Amino acid sequence: MKRFLFLLAFCTTVFADVRLPALIGDHMLLQRDVPLRIWGWADPGEQVSVTLLGQTSTAAATPEGKWEVYFTPIAAQSSPTTIAIKGKNQITIQDVLVGEVWVGSGQSNMQWMVKNSTNAAAEIAAANYPQMRIFQVALKTSETPLDDVEGKWEICSPETIPEVSAVGYYFSRELHKHLKVPVGFIRSAWGGTPVQAWTRLSLIEADPSMHWVLSNWRDILAKYPAAKERYDKALAEWEAKKQGPRPAAPMGPGHSHTPGGLYNAMIVPLLPYAIRGAIWYQGESNAGNKFADQYRHQHVSMIRDWRANWGVGDFPFLFVQLANFAPGNAVGWPTVQEAQDKTLDLKKTGMAVITDIGEEKDIHPKNKQDVGARLALAARHVAYGESLVYSGPRYRQVTREGSALRVWLDHSGRGLTAKGGGDLRGFVIAGADKKFVPAKALIDGKTVVVSSPDVANPVAVRYNWASFPDGNLFNGDGLPASLFRTDVWTDAVMPSSK
Length: 498
What we know:
11 helices, globular, 23 strands, alpha/beta, four-stranded antiparallel β-sheet, Rossmann fold, eleven-stranded mixed β-sheet, single chain, 3 domains
């Protein structure tokens, strides 16, 4: 009986303690200049007070044991401060800074670590930025929305940076150096995952144009028992011999591809946290299937939904266009790249074009420094209102001039150029027969004139329309042009690859 009473008292005490989400902890970084929310759990009805930089806010826990308090906007704070939380117990959060907070999400190229990127040893040794803070969300999926994640805030240092997102680190470092304020980065990414896993399930269910996602997943679940049986057998044989690659587990219940599964587990718990914006590097997993042409709608729908549910307005959303890569799917790759380009029609978006740094046989380009730097350029314009060249040339319109087509481009910066000198590459042209041939392309001011002796009456031009193109159109600020096409043909014939 005594032991029972002791355990009961212990459990009651634990339940009575104010509890905080993982995001509210030592070394955290808060978003400057916006209303802030601190939240957690306590006994129903328990009064909880929170003090931050002279402001004290109090709330009572709901019948479900949840509480939240708000603070008026705070300017950037480079000197560490504390957050005092008091209920039936007291918690002091140490070493808190205030500055810029960004979330980075997507698949493996966002998850890709500093230690695996270009010039890793030197980059790690130099990563001494105590006013940069990193939070990496542990990988998890869920059928229902969760209220917390696993992870902790860490100070950027040579000891902590090796396994941090390389894109996130280089992006944050650029902003920190330029803005001269503390910068926090929250990585919530998982390799090999499709956009639908990061999208709210009820949104997918309510959108008939995305019902193919549900149909596909139902088919996967129906086939899972047989696939699991084959996998178990193959795994047993592999473990007995340890030869060749380890068999891959089949998709099924709890898999990272579950529609809405990553949104539930790795995004929903972040929604109460104030942020400046998000960066996104994803699309590879959607480029390799017959639904690649659906990516634009999926991408835009997800962005709008994140913005609606985060509660900080239409925050800046910046993304990376897929790098050049030769996956053996020359149709789906440029289709997704084009979808990403057209997502720029959505307000407060920006895109880093990296079709000049890809690796033909590796889907993970090691040069993540340029990726982070180009995203930071976009952030400086989209999020911080700077007037600067932040994008490479982008297609605006085309006009016919006899046997040539003149392509008009935005974001020409200090002028157009063929990187490395020589002729422009990557352009093809077609007549009404929809058969594209390699074209001669000449820079004329802020336009490109495209022609071919084999096409007397051209009607369409494409640039870099391949999975591993060799286009070299840049602006004078060193930023590459995004791919484009002036047609909408689905039955066009492209020139044979080399």
